[in-house]
Amino acid sequence: MRADAERNRAKVIEAAMAAFATEGLAVSIAEIGRRAGVGTGTVSRHFPTKESLYAAIVLTKVEEIVSRARTLMTAEPPGEAFFSFFTYLVTQAATNRGLAQALNGGGFDVESAANRTEHDLEGVEQELLTQAQAAGVIRPEVTRGDVKALLVACVAAPDPSRMIEIISAGLRNPS
């Protein structure tokens, strides 16, 4: 790829990240091009569909999230790692409207996109949960689906940090 084409691609991704974070998935390609200082044709040459552009952005974010999960798994005991990761995901989604919509299944399948790469978001989430359950910290009947639904509830709440506290207490194994 030519140097100017690489610069334009980087500008498009940067503008799209900001636009999706503040406006969500509904932002138009024309608006992204305007923010990047390029035409819609330039955006379309690099990303033929809005989904392909969003996939590039989400995969960058998923890589960051998976890396964070792996770091927590080695740096903290299983229960702490699970709750730290849960809090991290809520915080990320609460400040990024596009990510929140994607995690909620609104218009983009994050897990499907992540599965096309080496970034196994589902896998690290399940691993964190399984390790916390094996350590006796999380209730054994809690599923990854439960955790995902609770994550969405936290993000939708007026005060996500309060919801994290309530949900964390409910997830803990009472024994």
TrEMBL record:
<feature type="domain" description="HTH tetR-type">
    <location>
        <begin position="6"/>
        <end position="65"/>
    </location>
</feature>
<dbReference type="InterPro" id="IPR009057">
    <property type="entry name" value="Homeodomain-like_sf"/>
</dbReference>
<dbReference type="InterPro" id="IPR036271">
    <property type="entry name" value="Tet_transcr_reg_TetR-rel_C_sf"/>
</dbReference>
<dbReference type="InterPro" id="IPR023772">
    <property type="entry name" value="DNA-bd_HTH_TetR-type_CS"/>
</dbReference>
<dbReference type="GO" id="GO:0000976">
    <property type="term" value="F:transcription cis-regulatory region binding"/>
</dbReference>
<dbReference type="InterPro" id="IPR049445">
    <property type="entry name" value="TetR_SbtR-like_C"/>
</dbReference>
<feature type="DNA-binding region" description="H-T-H motif">
    <location>
        <begin position="28"/>
        <end position="47"/>
    </location>
</feature>
<protein>
    <submittedName>
        <fullName>Transcriptional regulator, TetR family</fullName>
    </submittedName>
</protein>
<keyword id="KW-0805">Transcription regulation</keyword>
<dbReference type="GO" id="GO:0003700">
    <property type="term" value="F:DNA-binding transcription factor activity"/>
</dbReference>
<dbReference type="InterPro" id="IPR001647">
    <property type="entry name" value="HTH_TetR"/>
</dbReference>
<dbReference type="Pfam" id="PF21597">
    <property type="entry name" value="TetR_C_43"/>
</dbReference>
<keyword id="KW-0238">DNA-binding</keyword>
<dbReference type="Pfam" id="PF00440">
    <property type="entry name" value="TetR_N"/>
</dbReference>
<keyword id="KW-0804">Transcription</keyword>
<dbReference type="InterPro" id="IPR050109">
    <property type="entry name" value="HTH-type_TetR-like_transc_reg"/>
</dbReference>
